[in-house]
Every structure is written in C-alpha cells, then in structure tokens.
Amino acid sequence: MKEHVVLKVVADIMIPFIILFGLYVLAHGETTPGGGFQGGVICAAAVILHAIVHGRKETARLLPAGVLRGLAFSGVAVFLVVGLAGMFAGSNFLSYDWLGQQNGIMVVEAAICVSVFAVVSGIYMEME
Amino acid sequence: MNPAPLPAHYCCILIDMIYALLIGMVAVTIALALMRDLAAVAAGLGFLSLLAAGFFLAAAAPDVAITEAAVGAAAGTAFFVLAVGKTGRRVKKKSFKPLVAVVTSSAIFACLAFVSVELPEFGSASSPAASNVAAHYVAKAEEETGVPNVVTAVLASYRGFDTLGELVVILTAFVVVALMARKEEA
Q1: Whole-angstrom Cα distance, residue A126 to residue B6?
Q2: Tens of pLDDT along B142-164?
Q3: B107 neighbors B77 (Cβ within 8 angstroms)
Q4: Which of A56, A62, A94, B43 is most buried, most CB within 10 Å of its CB?
Q5: B54 CB contacts (<8 Å, ≥6 apart)?
Q6: ipTM score of the complex?
Q7: Averaged in consecutive runs of 10 residues, what is the pLDDT profile of chain B (186 residues)?
Q8: Per-residue pLDDT, A75
C-alpha cells in the first residue's frame, strides 16, 4: 500500500477519533449503551485500520507483540485479583463490597477493555 | 432517569425495520452461498454483520448492536480477508455439494419454523427469560450497584463470573492464534 497517500492520510485522521470514541464507550458505559467489551473492540478496530493501511510491520513497531500479549493477560489478572480480593475481604468471589459497587464495576470494565483490545488487535497482528 | 414515552407509530416503524433487516439478511445469505469468490464472501459477511447490528438496534439491544458492528463487521471482516489472502480466493469445484447443503439447511429451517410457533411473543413480559431474575435487575440494579445502565450492571456485577469466563475464552483464542503463528515460523 505504498502509493495510497489518500488512504493513509484519511486513516491517520480517523484513528485518534476511533480510539477516542472507544474510550468514550468504555467510560460512558454506565449510563449509555456500551462498556468495556465494546470500547475495547472499537479501539482494536483502530489498530487493525492502522495495520491495513500502513502495514503490520509499522504497527508492530509502535505496538510490539509482547506488549499486546502482556496487556491481554494483565486485564484478566486484574479482573481475577479484584474478584479474589472480595473473598479475602470476607465476602463472596467478585462481590465488590470492599471497593464499592460502582468503583468495582469501573475497575472491572477497564480491565475488560484492556484485555479485549489486546486480544482482538493481537489476533490480527499475530495472524502472519 | 425515565425516557420519554415513544410515540405510537414509532413501534410499528421499528417492527417494519426488523422485518426489512431480517429479509435483507436472508437475501444476503443466499447471495453469499452462491458466490465463488471468497474475498467477495468475506466482504459480504461484513455486510451481513452490519445488517445484524441494525436488527439488534431496532430490537432495542444497542449494547449487542455495538458489539456486532465492531466485532462482526469490522474485526471479523479483517480476519476473514487476512485468512482469504493466505489461503487463496477460489473455491475448489469438487468441495461444493449443493444438494447436501440445500437438504440440510431446509431440514434445519423446517425444524426451527416448527418450534418457533411455541416461542413467546417478542418482548413478552411472561417469557421465561423475563420472568425470573430479570424483574429484580430492572427494578433494583441502579439502587444496588449505582449504575443506571442495567446491561452494564448485570454484565459487570450480577453476572461478573460469566464475564470473567468470557474474557478467559477470548484470551484462550488469542493464545491459540499466537501459538499457531509461532509454529509456522519454526
């Protein structure tokens, strides 16, 4: 895709807004449709667009495969730790009593977002 | 936060939209089954997902619609195009057995049509899905979790365990893809 200047310029303009929209869907998921999963996939779509237009080597330089793998696992790990912390605080697994329901939901949604983002963009980047 | 009541004709428009989208999905699916160019099929599957997203939106499930649009229409299409690019875009003539396909799908369609008579009415309050814990969630979710979006409250709090399971499932898919790609390198 060396010669497609228009595609590259338009994609570069769109990518920040796609990521911003993904973060909005995550942050506003409490009151409007959306949440961690949707926000994560929308952000991953921006990475896939970058990889289609600029080539996967250029995307991998900005976002190495190791980082994506780490993010994918850390999201699940945060979710698990939040859940287990509820147990150690004397309540049920994944009860957010020690953190407050609203904070617990926010932390978990952010963890879901990070993990889903890394998984969806990572699958595209790894499918070499 | 009570939304304003919908005007009376709005509901009919939505139901017309649902029918139009479902008929469109059937038409696209038949067209896809007749296509021989896999790159075109990959693009068509993305369009099918977009119609499905519109259907979910018209059926008052915007959370599912966003997911379908992002996963099915965007990411899924990219995966398919990538896979077609690796494997070739032509179908082998021998592998296509139209009679088997038509008989199997007609049989499945007949079974589903036969059972669909027994389904509860669309949006019915007495359906099994709506008659157990759903009423509690709708009435108490905001009070108990502090989150006005009931879908988010259910996914992240009431059914957090299921969501954790889903996350582990997609992580497993990622690990498998990464391992397969690594095998090709060696």
Answers
A1: 47
A2: 888 888 888 888 888 888 899 99
A3: no
A4: A94
A5: B17, B21, B65
A6: 0.88
A7: 60 84 93 88 94 91 90 91 86 75 92 90 76 82 82 84 92 91 63
A8: 93
Cα A93 to Cα A76: distance, rounded to the nearest angstrom: 15
**pLDDT tens-digit profile of A47-105?**
999 998 998 888 989 999 899 999 999 999 999 998 888 888 888 888 887 788 888 88
Number of H helices, E strands in chain A: 5, 0
Probe site for chain A from B171, B172, B182, B184 (most A CB atoms < 10 A)? B171
Asked if residue A53 lies in contact with residue A13, where contact means CB atoms within 8 angstroms, the answer is no
CA gap B82, B84 in Å, rounded: 6
CA distances from B35 to A73, B91, B143 (A): 40, 9, 52
Chain A interface test: which of B137, B151, B164 (most A C-beta within 10 Å): B164
Nearest to B46 by CA among B83, B72, B84: B72
Enter the pTM of the model.
0.85
Query: Are B171 and A42 inside 8 Å of each other by CB?
Result: no
- From B176's Cα to the closest Cα of chain A, the distance in A is 9
Q: Do A35 and B64 contact (CB within 8 A), yes or no?
A: no
Closest alpha carbon to A126 in B150, B162, B21, B79: B79
pLDDT digits 0-9 by tens, A9-30: 999 999 999 999 999 999 888 8
Tokens, residue B133 = 């814990």
